[in-house]
Each structure stands twice: as C-alpha cells, then as structure tokens.
Design goal:
Elements: E1 5-8, E2 11-15, E3 26-29, H1 32-40, H2 47-63, H3 69-84, H4 91-106, H5 112-142, E4 149-153, H6 168-177, E5 181-187, H7 194-205, E6 210-213, H8 218-223, E7 229-232, E8 236-238, E9 243-246, H9 249-258, E10 263-266, E11 272-273, H10 290-293, E12 294-295, E13 298-299, E14 312-315, E15 322-325, E16 328-330, H11 334-343
Parallel strand pairs: 4-5, 4-7, 5-6, 7-10, 8-11, 10-15
Antiparallel strand pairs: 1-2, 2-3, 8-9, 9-14, 12-13, 15-16
The protein binds 5-S-methyl-1-O-phosphono-5-thio-D-ribulose.
Length: 344
C-alpha cells in the first residue's frame, strides 16, 4: 500500500501528488508553514488525507516549540489557524484540527513534553483509524455492487486521498477482491486531472481494469449502457445529505439519475458536517485561474481570458441513492440516518 504521509523522526514527510504518475517523490516538510503550503498547492490532497496531514503538521509544530507553557497556547492556536486557512471545503481538515485541540486542552496543565507526546500519538492514531475506516467503507460498499459491476468514478477518492485503501476506490478494491468488479471508468477530472493521474495509476498498480475518459464523455458511456453504478467520494456532507465533492460530480449525478444508474457517495462519518443544514451553505473553494488556462506549463487558451474555477460542486441529496460510511449505508431520508449514525 502506498504511504501518503509519515513522520521521519519528528519531521512530516508526504508523497508529492503533483508529480504522479510520472515520478514517485517524497518531500520532507520540516515547518508548519511548509505543511500548510503543501496542502494549498495540492501536493497533498483528498479530504481525509488533508485532515491527517494537518494533524501531523500541528504535532510537528508543537514538537519544535521551545518556550514556556504559558506561551504554548497562543503558539498552538497560531499553527492551528494557519493549517485551517489552507482549504475551505473539506471538513475533515477542521475535524482533525479540532480533535488535536481537544487533546491539547485535555493535557494543557501537564508538562510540555507530555503535551508534545500526546499530540503526536493522536496524529498517528488518526492515521491508523483512517485505514480501518476505509476498509469498513469498502466492506459495506462492495455489498451494494451488482455482479460484474462497471463502476464510474471521478477525481481520486483512493489510497492517495487517504492514509490507505480509499473511500470510493476502497469500495472498488473490496468489490474487486470479491470478484464483483469488472472494470472502472475513470473520469479524467479537469482541471487538475486527479482521475487521470492518480485513480488510473492506483488501479493499474492493483491490476484493476480501468478505462480513462474525459469528463464530457460520461453521458455517452452511460447511454451506451456501459455503466452499472457510480461511486464517488466527498469533501463535506451536509446534515440533509447534500454532498460537496470534486467539480463534475454533480454532472455525473444528474446523468446517472437520467440513465437510472445508482449513484453512491462513499465517505467517513468525519466528512459529515452537522453544523451545515444543506449544501448551499457549504463553502466552495475557488482556485487559481491558471489551473484552467494551462495544462502543465502551457497555455491552452488566451493568457488573460477570464476563468471561473470552482474546485467542488454540490450534489443534492435526491440524486444520491446511499451514503456509504464505516458504520453502514445511509439511505434516504438522509437527515434521520445521518443523525442516527453520527450519534453512535
Ligand atoms: O481537490 P482535491 O483533489 O483535494 O479533491 C478531492 C476530492 O474531491 C475527493 O473526491 C474527496 O476529497 C474525497 S477523498 C477520499
């Protein structure tokens, strides 16, 4: 299984996902500023991985602290705020940072060395938990797949987006291991190409048959009768089930609805934000216009053309057949199922 983030001594090391699939390069990030920059630049991406990497970054920042215990609180808050400012949509980022803060507050009266140790332990625990959560999502999700399923997905909700195994690709992996998956249709996912670069790379490594299409081919492939099910990841799920995920997900959901193809969201419960009632309130990140104007270093359009570049869109709950979590599959009406599982 690929390692997406780890500690080397007390330094955070991440797989540089911008370079995949051409090069497998690990980067040492020895300051919290470098960790924040890595998240912003998509060196590290995918909702669960962003959260865990931020937790690693916060633990590292505290491990480097040299002042008195009185000064530690504001130092901690500064590092936490910096990490929280990197990307607005994936709620896992805030979930992970808040969990670190709870531990910090719990041990605030202890010796600084104890606080450092507890924070590192918590970050490592989140890493281990994430893998287990994904495996459970895979187990539940794979049972929903028809025999010989042809699964369509978008972006990368795989091992690269998590600490291992993946959410949507976790469902594919578990299904493939049970002999239920025939092939995957991977949408390339313009403009950053997470589907073409990461999903294809991961699936080929696992010998899972994959066919790459550009995003605008999805409707045609569905109309040909070549898709049995769509499974995607999520960056934030509102209390009513509306789901923010990579731009293009909403179009896939509408197409799936039109072609009567089941559309599932696979995500850990930490991606569900009970503070957000419905999708309209989910903050949607807008990224640099050059992501659309350029492919790698080349302009594919007029250099200063205006561009709209939202990184995510929102799929309304009525287009979703089920939300696959580590504690089971939530089906409509989502508000009730979400409340029940989040309460467990
Ligand atoms: O901009 P990205 O690459 O961080 O977007 C990632 C996605 O949209 C994923 O589908 C989502 O985070 C789920 S990852 C398990």
């Amino acid at each position: 299984m690929i390692k997406t983030v780890y500690f080397e001594d007390d330094v955070v090391v991440v797989l540089d996902q911008r370079k995949l699939p051409g090069e497998v390069v690990y980067e040492k990030l020895d300051t919290v500023e470098k960790v924040a920059e890595a998240i912003k630049l998509l060196m590290v991406r995918g909702a669960p991985l962003i959260g865990v990497t931020a937790a690693f970054g916060l633990a590292m920042a505290v491990s480097q602290f040299k002042g008195s215990r009185e000064e530690l609180k504001s130092y901690f808050k500064q590092a936490k705020d910096l990490l929280a400012s990197t990307r607005p949509t994936a709620v896992n980022l805030f979930w992970a940072l808040n969990r670190m803060e709870q531990v910090f507050n719990q041990y605030a009266g202890e010796d600084v060395e104890i606080i450092k140790k507890k924070l590192k332990q918590t970050a490592l625990k989140m890493y281990e938990e994430d893998i287990k959560v994904n495996e459970a999502i895979g187990e539940y999700g794979s049972e929903l797949l028809p025999v010989s399923a042809r699964v369509m997905t978008i972006c990368n909700a795989g091992a690269a987006a998590t600490c291992g195994f993946g959410t949507a690709l976790g469902v594919v992996r578990a299904g493939f291991n049970k002999g239920r998956v025939d092939k995957v249709w991977a949408c390339e996912t313009r403009p950053v190409l997470q589907g073409a670069r990461l999903t294809v790379w991961e699936l080929i490594q696992d010998n899972i048959p994959v066919t790459l299409i550009t995003d605008n081919m999805a409707g045609y492939v569905m109309n040909l009768g070549n898709v049995d099910v769509v499974v995607v990841g999520a960056d934030r799920i509102a209390a009513n089930g509306d789901t923010a995920n990579k731009i293009g997900t909403y179009s896939l959901a509408v197409l799936a609805y039109h072609h009567n193809i089941p559309f599932y969201v696979a995500a850990p419960l930490s991606t569900i934000d009970l503070n957000i009632g419905s999708g309209g309130d989910i903050p949607i990140e807008e990224r640099d216009k050059d992501e659309v104007r350029k492919i790698k270093d080349f302009y594919i359009t007029v250099e200063d053309v205006d561009v709209f570049n939202p990184a995510f869109d929102v799929t309304p709950n009525h287009l979703i057949k089920g939300i696959i979590t580590e504690k089971g599959v939530i089906t409509p009406p989502f508000s009730e199922g979400i409340k029940m599982l989040k309460g467990k």
